[in-house]
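Example S7 (structure tokens).
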């Protein structure tokens, strides 16, 4: 009977590219991930991974996808980026728009803004769920699914181990949203205040989950990178790759224990 190995991918904006470096190491070690839970950036990487795309192709997706181009800006919507315009971007990489078409079990977390609760998606349409999970407040417009308004899953659960507990034999957690110390001159805009407040509010609850993982990968070096800074993708990928390599021996034990 195949052992069930789960992978939890946190949110973190562009820092989510570090997830891809870790996937590359898992591929090289021959570790077969059977279940994935992702939120925000982790939902994007997780969905592409669950659809069968290798790490290098997922990295190319992030390099080729200009999420912040001006044509995506929202008009008369509650956000800067019109999330709906991004649907066609994902359709190019996901041949079938459904959880059921994936090669791995996938769980995506979004925040139900109307009923103030976290929602786990595991079936049905996939692309809108990814966009809902990734709809960072005030940056991306919320997404309506079944007549309910959803936003970034990280608002209430940015490290969603819960869907995999009790299902998987082993669970690997990848947390790419470390909090760094700032000086007051670093907080210079409304967006920087929002981003800082967001990180502080969700960080504590995530850290409390760290000891629930069989293996935890959380590169502190990522704290130097901004959530939406797209000019350091290769560096962020390398940080994730090297962080996973440092735990190579522990990861390999997943194959034998």
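Recovered sequence:
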């Amino acid at each position: 009977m195949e052992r069930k190995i789960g992978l939890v991918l946190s949110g973190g904006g562009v820092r989510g590219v570090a997830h891809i470096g870790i996937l590359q190491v898992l591929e090289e070690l021959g570790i077969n991930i059977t279940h994935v839970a992702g939120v925000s950036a982790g939902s994007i990487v997780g969905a592409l991974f669950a659809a069968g795309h290798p790490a290098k192709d997922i990295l190319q997706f992030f390099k080729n996808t200009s999420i912040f181009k001006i044509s995506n800006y929202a008009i008369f919507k509650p956000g800067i980026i019109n999330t709906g315009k991004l649907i066609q971007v994902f359709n190019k990489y996901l041949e079938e728009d459904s959880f059921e078409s994936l090669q791995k079990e996938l769980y995506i977390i979004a925040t139900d803004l109307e009923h103030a609760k976290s929602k786990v998606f595991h079936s049905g349409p996939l692309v809108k769920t990814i966009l809902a999970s990734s709809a960072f407040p005030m940056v991306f417009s919320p997404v309506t699914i079944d007549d309910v308004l959803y936003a970034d899953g990280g608002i209430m659960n940015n490290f969603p181990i819960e869907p995999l507990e009790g299902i998987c034999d082993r669970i690997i957690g990848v947390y790419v949203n470390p909090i760094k110390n700032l000086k007051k001159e670093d907080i210079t805009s409304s967006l920087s205040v929002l981003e800082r407040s967001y990180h502080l509010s969700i960080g504590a609850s995530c850290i409390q989950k760290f000891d629930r993982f069989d293996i935890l990968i959380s590169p502190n070096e990522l704290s130097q990178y901004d959530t939406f800074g797209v000019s350091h993708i290769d560096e962020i990928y390398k940080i994730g790759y090297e962080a996973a390599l440092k735990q190579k021996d522990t990861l390999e034990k997943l194959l034998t224990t």
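Notes on this example. The CA atoms of residues 133 and 152 lie 4 Å apart.
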